[in-house]
Specification:
The protein starts with a helix and ends with a strand. The protein contains 13 helices and eight strands. The chain is α/β, with parallel strands linked by helices. The strands form two sheets. A four-stranded mixed β-sheet has the order 1-2-4-3. The chain has a four-stranded mixed β-sheet with strand order 5-6-8-7, sandwiched between helices.
Length: about 270
């Protein structure tokens, strides 16, 4: 059930995994991704937002836990504030190195920097993040990078916007893993499970010695014709699993999960 709290969170961009469901139910939310809305957000107050999503202004202020001096700030500022440092750069500290790219000259010359940003992002190593400097908030880029498995943080200094991207998965191009966001895998799993429980299987192979984890995963896939996804908790990255599954029309995405590795084997027709 979608609550009023869920609706407020979605309106502020904090529940991306529920975006499509909410947009089907609440037509006005479709405007949140539009360039027009992003432009309007520059001058939209919390009170304006409360009117749009049909909630009490006082309730929204209390829910957001805003101090009096921030109640009249515009929505764009609030969206940036929720992504301020405190995320991956501060959690990992000096373990991460920065790559910088200032897109202002390209934009001023009429060149779309999107392709160049993608090229640089592809070169990032596990201990690197990308810092983008621009004179506007790159909302479409944020959504695209999130869909590709990147997390981001934002800062604003005067008229200058800084966006920081870091890949949260364990994707390595040469290893053949899928480039997917973890929340997309979770959403896909939930959608499949709601339609047909037999289409999703969960495995825990942490206590098995090699090559038993790989054998169990392959046997599970071979033994169920209705299977669309397998979620596996593993002790290590299953590099050797990629090739045999690829030959059978499956892709593999991997993510860190504390001290463990979370593995998603997904039928390619779903990607």
């Amino acid at each position: 059930m979608i609550t009023r709290t869920d609706l407020i969170l979605e309106a502020l961009g904090k529940l991306p995994e529920h975006t499509q469901t909410l947009k089907k139910r609440f037509a006005f939310l479709r405007h949140l991704d539009s360039a027009a809305f992003q432009k309007k957000a520059e001058n939209m107050s919390v009170e304006n937002l409360a009117e749009i999503i049909d909630v009490d202004h006082t309730e929204l202020v209390e829910f957001l836990n805003l101090p009096p001096e921030k109640v009249n700030q515009n929505i764009q500022t609030l969206l940036i504030a929720k992504n301020r440092p405190g995320g991956f750069r501060y959690k990992q500290g000096e373990n991460l190195k920065e790559k910088s790219f200032d897109v202002r000259e390209l934009v001023a010359s009429g060149v779309d920097p999107f392709t160049e940003i993608q090229k640089i992002a592809k070169t990032l190593k596990k201990n690197e993040y990308l810092k983008i400097a621009s004179d506007f908030r790159p909302a479409p880029l944020l959504r695209h990078m999130e869909s590709k498995g990147y997390v981001y943080e934002e800062e604003k200094e005067g008229d200058l916007f800084f966006t920081y991207f870091y890949f949260e998965g364990l994707y390595k191009k040469e290893s053949g893993f899928l480039e997917l966001a973890q929340n997309r895998c979770v959403k896909l799993k939930n959608d499949l499970h709601s339609k047909n429980r037999q289409s999703v299987v969960e495995l825990d192979v942490r206590d098995l010695a090699a090559p038993e984890p790989m054998e169990k995963i392959l046997a599970t896939i071979h033994g169920n014709q209705n299977l669309q996804m397998v979620e596996v908790i593993h002790r290590k990255i299953p590099y050797l699993l990629v090739e045999p599954l690829a030959r059978q029309g499956w892709g593999v995405a991997v993510f860190e999960n504390g001290d463990d590795i979370l593995v998603y084997a997904i039928k390619e027709n779903l990607l």
